[in-house]
Amino acid sequence: MAPVLKHIEEIAADIGIPADALTLYGRHKAKVPFSLYDAARAKQGKLILVTSTTPNKAGVGKTTTSVALGQGLRRLGKNAVVALREPSLGPVFGMKGGATGGGGSQVHPTADINLHFNGDFHAITSANNLIAALADNARYYDKGNDPLKKILWKRALDMNDRALRSIITGLDGNGGAQETGFDITAASEIMAILCLATDYDDLARRIDNVLVGHRVSGKPFLFSELASTGAVMALLKDAMHPNLVQSTEGVPVFVHGGPFANIAHGCNSIAATRLAMTYGDYAITEAGFGADLGAEKFLNIKCRNAGIEPAVTVIATTSISLKLHGGAAESEIRKANSAALKNGLKNLERHIANLQSFGQAVVVGYNRYDFDSADEIAMVKDWCGEHGTRFALNDGYAKGGEGATELANEVLSVIAQNESTPLRFTYELTEKPEDKLHKVVTHIYRGKSVSFSTRAKNTLARLAGTEAERYPVCIAKTQYSFSQDPVLVGVAENFNIHFEDIIVNSGAEFLVAVAGDMLRMPGLPKVPQAGKISVVKGEIEGLL
Q1: pLDDT digits (tens, 9 = 90+) for 201-227
Q2: Would the pLDDT of 176 be above 90?
Q3: To the nearest whole number, what is the mean pLDDT of the chain?
Q4: Does residue 237 surpass a pLDDT of 90?
Q5: 70 has pLDDT over 90
Q6: Cα distance between residue 313 and residue 65, in whole Å
Q7: Are 2 and 100 in contact (CB under 8 A)?
Q8: Rg for the chain (alpha carbons), in Å?
Q9: Residues 38-45: what's their mean pLDDT?
Q10: What is the pLDDT, as a whole number, of residue 289?
Q11: Strand ranges, E, within 92-233
Q12: Distance CA 433, CA 512 (A)
């Protein structure tokens, strides 16, 4: 049975946001101005990061954990606010389904959030494609001594569509044919820019700096040369403001921005996180996929940009994730298997060690399934005790906030005892890009080496001595393994990561290093989730 939702003005008033500051999208959704960020108040807010062990195809329940923790803290009388990413239509209709939590710990209105929401993805897609159209137009008309020769900027679509990965435009002969393709909107640099921009001036500066392509001479062609940043800003004006919704139990939730962590930087917007820290004494946020991807990028990229750091990190895990990474067959991971569970704890151990290398104190949040045995839960709890790591059973799916109070108490204890130390980054920005990549691969993934294609080497050579050399790195690789091979589950070691491409995101101000054949436009599975969705008596059903 769906919960009875409060009007969004009531949710806003609960944390001190006046009704006249809201832009309403019906009764249960609103935009909140990013300008309400208060640096002094946000400094007092405690940031809690939720990440996970290496996931299986069904995920590990980070969103459910984030929402449940917010509800658990509220049950304990704490002012908690949650900040999450927006779902993409690609996974909604593809393999994973919706991304608004589950059971008694969801974000509402779920159908709206999973589908069109307040139009942010549409605005980002349109802004991305306006840049593409303007770039092609410039190439068509520019007949000067040093015209635009190669356009790097791709188009975007918020849908899994493998047929659009590689295309040829201009076949009508006007301007000449050119190889290009589509990225999914979550991988668009405009998505990253929106999530990292702090205000309109910063947004405009970043759009100006977008690398569109290269002239015949090899000189970079930036979007500022097209003098159309104002038009892109017009499309993104409303999308820049975070969205306010609510959890099953009425906890305020900011949902804003949606980059994937396997092909982008995997975090919700700085604007939304800042608002959560402004209006909540405790701000809970998540980073996509496992800690080697989302958390690494959250800490090395987002925290650098925003000047923030978590007071504690929660690692969500499940029996099925641990068993999968302990050697159990995917078809068998719901069955009792203490040997596989024990072996899978090596995956958890590595993620804990990685987060501790950043200075983070860790709480393991074990998401209980109804088929989990008491003995297996005890095995994980005892292991955590033996390794000096806090453990909490999370029943947030089945029991909502009531089932997450144990997790909430452990988190509060870490914060009260100030167990985390100041944030330590994996690399310094002054290091060369190849050295930054080597450090992430060897220190976080535990590989032994990196290698680069000729194309990637040429890009790195062009970056030498430029400001882009100082950018942080954002690795695009499979989420299912520490390596670039999704079959190598568990704790792969001594492998090489081969980078096929280095993409310069000069607006977002990071370098995307594409490992192996990682694709920035996913495809649909053989049996898409789209086949489970329908409209019955005017209501949408089947959005998982």
Answers
A1: 999 999 999 999 999 999 999 999 999
A2: no
A3: 95
A4: yes
A5: yes
A6: 12
A7: no
A8: 23
A9: 95
A10: 94
A11: 101-102, 105-108, 148-151, 155-157, 167-169, 178-180, 182-184, 211-215, 220-222
A12: 10
Write down how long the chain is. Answer: 544
* Number of C-beta neighbours around residue 229 at 10 A: 19
Question: 402: which 2 tokens?
Answer: 């009531």
* Alpha carbons 321 and 256: distance in angstroms, whole number: 27
Angstrom distance (rounded) from CA 225 to CA 138: 10
d(CA 473, CA 457): 15
Residue 96 has pLDDT above 80, yes or no: no
- Can you name the residues that pair with 81 across neighbouring β-strands? 283
- Contact (Cβ atoms closer than 8 angstroms) between residue 294 and residue 260: no
- Provide the whole-model pTM: 0.95
Over residues 158-163, mean pLDDT:
94
Gap between the Cα atoms of 70 and 403, Å rounded? 11
Alpha-carbon gap, residue 313 to 291, rounded angstroms:
10
Question: What separation, in Å, do the N-terminal and C-terminal C-alpha atoms of the chain show?
Answer: 15
CB 191 within 8 A of CB 206: no
Q: 442: how many CB neighbours lie within 10 A of its CB?
A: 15
What pLDDT digit, counting tens, does each position of 363-383 carry? 999 999 999 999 999 999 999
- Long-range (24+ apart) CB contacts under 8 A made by 373-378 are 373/336, 375/338, 376/319, 376/336, 376/338, 376/341, 377/319
- Phi, psi of 5, deg, nearest 5: -85, 145
CB 15 within 8 A of CB 252: yes
